[in-house]
Structures are given as C-alpha cells and as structure tokens.
Amino acid sequence: EYSCLLAQFPEQAQQDVWGVDPKTLISGSYVPSGEAKKTEGGWLLNGRYGFSSGVHNSGWSIVGVLLPIGENDSHVHCFVLVSKLDRKIIDNWQASGLSGTGSADIEFHEAFVPEHRVLDGRLAARGESPGSELNTAPVYKMPNFGFAQTALASVVIGAAKGAISDFTMLMKTEKVRGKPMADIHSMQLRLAEASAQAESARLLVLGTARENMAKLSTGAKLMLGDLARNRRNSAYGVDLSKRAVNSLLEVTGTAGLYLENDIQRAFRDINAASGYYPLSWDLNATIYGRYAVGLDLEGFL
C-alpha cells in the first residue's frame, strides 16, 4: 500500500527512494498527529505517530500532516516522505493481536521535508496525483482514501483460510473422548459453514477489486458510490472471516488455548483487525446505508 502511495509522489521523491534501492520497504501512519512548520525549501516535521506497521524493516516512512496550503491558508491533509535517519522508533507494540505487524510508534523532531516529498492529499483522494501522470497503470489512478480496504481485507481472509486448513487437519488427526473428530457431526457442520464464509469473503473482496480495476482501465474514475460499495464489501468480508474463525475456536477445545495452536493466533489477529477503524463493519455499513438513501457522508469518510 505504501509503495503504491509513494508512486503518487512527485518523480524526485520516488527517485530519492527507489533510485537508491528499488527494494526499499516503506512504513506509514496516515493520521495527521504531527505538526509541520514552513522553512526554506520545505517543512520541519515534529510529532509522534502511532501504528506504523513494518517500521523496523522500512527505510522510509510516509506520514500524514495538516499543511496550510489550501484556500486562505486553510489546512489540507497531506502526506510527507521521511527517511529512517530522521525518525525515532518507540518500541511500544506489545499487542494481543497482529503482533507480527510490528506497528510501533514513530517520532520526529525537526525533521526536514523538502517540497518534493510532499503529496497533497486532495490530489491523492481524487486519483490525480503528480505520480499518476508518470506511472500510467490504472492502479495509480485509484483514489487513496477508501479503496485500500480490499488489500487490507485480503490479509484477514487469508488468515481465516489458514485457520480453516489447520482445523481440517486437526479433525483428521485428533480424537475427542476416543472418537475421531472427523466423525463428529457438529464438527463437520462447523467446518462446512466456516469454509463457506471464508470462500464467500474471498470472492466478494476479489470481485470488488477486479471491478474497481476494470473501471479504472477504461479511463473512468471511481466515484462516491464505488467507494461506499468498496468499503461495505471489504468490511463484510472481514466480518465473515471473523465469524468463521470464532466458530472454529469455539469447538477446538482446551487444546485451542495453547499459544502454539495456530487457530488461536488467527482468532486473535482477525478479531484485532476487525476492530481497525477502516475495516469496522458498523462504520462501513453506515457509510453505505447513508449513501444508498441519499444522506450526507460528511464526517463519516
């Protein structure tokens, strides 16, 4: 996701990163929790940002910040690109779920950001960024806000399918009070329902992503209705995945409580991900419902 966002920055910013190392990893934190002040040739960034997934392995970070570049110096949500040399990692990611993401906080103090490493969030939201003129593939025309959910949801669905594979193997090899799990009718029903939920989620999210790309490939733009549908389908795919893994853990027994059991790990990761704001079913269902009946979405996106 962050590499795709970098591809929307001005060409010089892309060269700063990929011109040095094409395999560089990028982390990010979109919420504009820091501040920037104007200086000669750019901005000085200060502040602390949360949930910067993958930061320990990344060479650069993209973070959100409000800059006074709008009409009458109004503040605009922008993205700035900062080298790892200018950030401090706060190793505070001790979490019950998604621990493997390494989503630690990062902090900046007077980090210089040249003008060419600033991306106007309004342009990214419309799919009209400077980089989209350079990188002409349809994916770079995709608006930044609201359409990354299909990528996020796919990780959750993959975790659910992995848990189903583990549960299937468990049924084939384990016994309950001397009786093979594979012969227990209720276990068969749980497996069938969970696999149907995960497969439905996969088809729903993959189909949504394909339709988005098909529309962009024609030169058309993704509109508000596409965004509402995309968010609804992605969040519902996550919700289906959560139902699937929760159902399986309920019948895994006390053996499912051990940390070495991958099903409980999938349970923790999926439930943690479903609480992530962009993947919340309640929020995204509300967005779609309001759009469908013609109500204003101000304050919901």
List the helices and strands and how they pair.
Blueprint: H1 2-6, H2 11-18, E1 26-29, E2 35-39, E3 42-52, E4 60-67, E5 76-83, E6 87-90, E7 104-114, E8 118-120, H3 121-126, H4 130-134, H5 149-173, E9 175-176, E10 179-180, H6 185-217, H7 224-250, H8 262-274, H9 281-292
Parallel strand pairs: 1-4
Antiparallel strand pairs: 2-3, 3-7, 4-5, 5-8, 6-7, 9-10
Helix pairs in contact: 5-6, 5-7, 5-8, 6-7, 7-8, 7-9
What key phrases describe this protein's structure?
single chain, alpha+beta, Butyryl-CoA Dehydrogenase, subunit A, domain 2, Butyryl-CoA Dehydrogenase, subunit A, domain 3, 2 domains, four-stranded mixed β-sheet, four-stranded antiparallel β-sheet
Q: Mean of residue pLDDT?
A: 95
Write down how many β-strands occur, each being a DSSP E stretch of 2 or more residues: 10
CATH architecture of the largest domain: Up-down Bundle
Under CATH at level 1, the class of the largest domain stands as Mainly Alpha
Uncertain parts: none
The CATH superfamily label of the largest domain reads Butyryl-CoA Dehydrogenase, subunit A, domain 3
Describe this structure in words.
The strands form three sheets. Strands 1-4-5-8 form a four-stranded mixed beta sheet. Strands 2-3-7-6 form a four-stranded antiparallel beta sheet, with no helix packed on it. 45% of the residues lie in helices and 19% in strands. The protein folds into two domains: 124 residues, Butyryl-CoA Dehydrogenase, subunit A, domain 2; 144 residues, Butyryl-CoA Dehydrogenase, subunit A, domain 3 (Up-down Bundle). It has nine helices and ten strands. Helix 5 packs parallel to helix 7, helix 5 runs antiparallel to helix 8 and helix 7 runs antiparallel to helix 9. By secondary structure, it is of the alpha+beta class.
